[in-house]
Amino acid sequence: MKITKVWLDESTDECTSCGLCESIAPGVFEVPDKMIVKENVDFDAFKTNIKDAADSCPVSVIKYEEVE
Hints:
This protein is of the alpha+beta class. The chain is 22% helix and 25% strand. The protein has a single domain (2-67), classed as Alpha-Beta Plaits (2-Layer Sandwich), CATH 3.30.70.20. The protein is globular, with a radius of gyration of 11 Å.
């Protein structure tokens, strides 16, 4: 499976800007005021880190899409 898309989904909760995602995957996430996903990133190169960040997010707002 290849990760093709990563985004912030605040439909049920808001990002708390804790910075955990940035500490786990600094090549993908940045937290100036609120988490952003960096542009032009090969998400698949950071697959494990993205999954760890999504699983570790205290408010579960990190989402990603995988395709075969």
